[in-house]
């Protein structure tokens, strides 16, 4: 086994969500350094910064007991993105976040995986509140948030002024 975290394995109809593994680094690096979705938001990084981000994600699991899951398409066995919970030191609350790799968008993977993580957060971690901090111009992520039952509260994230705060209902919806 190549477990780098204590992440559980979550399964949905089409997806497997697991903790990050060493073999995920090349795809993560490609995404972080060159994905069109990252470029459009001005968020690409260098390969070295991606390496540190990957390690930070592993540490996040150790520190908080939650983090990003690698999302794998069960049909192909290939990683299609990352979905999970994050809470950095200066953030006001725990974020439910999603990033799909190029070519995986538009298939419902983000919604399917995020619903699984949201259920896990409620049932296993006992969390009663989650947020998503979504760039004001990111229509696709706003659509995912709406499908997850989230609503914007009209405020901006203090740690990211370009992002709207979306609040997730945790009643099973």
CATH architecture of the domain at 10-127: 3-Layer(aba) Sandwich
Q: Tell me, what's the shape?
A: globular
Strand content: 25-35%
What is the CATH top level name of the domain at 10-127?
Alpha Beta
Q: What's the CATH topology name of the domain at 10-127?
A: Aminopeptidase
Q: Would you identify the CATH H-level superfamily of the domain at 10-127?
A: Gcn5-related N-acetyltransferase (GNAT)
Question: How are strands sequenced across the largest beta sheet?
Answer: 1-2-3-4-5
- Number of E strands: 8
Give the class from helix and strand content and strand pairing. alpha+beta
- Helices and strands, in N-to-C order? EEHHHEEEHEHEE
Q: How helix-rich are the residues, as a percent range?
A: 25-40%
What is the residue-averaged pLDDT?
A: 91
Give the helix tally.
5
Main sheet: strands, sense, barrel: 5 strands, antiparallel
Query: What is Rg?
Result: 15 Å
**Ends: how far apart?**
34 Å
What does this structure look like?
The protein is an alpha+beta fold and 173 residues long. It has a domain at 10-127: Gcn5-related N-acetyltransferase (GNAT) (Aminopeptidase), CATH 3.40.630. The chain is built from five helices and eight strands; from the N terminus they run E-E-H-H-H-E-E-E-H-E-H-E-E. It has helices spanning 25-34, 36-40, 47-64, 109-123, 139-147; strands at 10-11, 15-18, 68-73, 79-86, 95-100, 130-135, 151-157, 160-168. The strands form two sheets. It has a five-stranded antiparallel beta sheet. Strands 6-8-7 form a three-stranded antiparallel beta sheet, with helices on one face. Strand 7 and strand 8 (160-168) form a beta hairpin. Helix 1 (25-34) packs across helix 3.
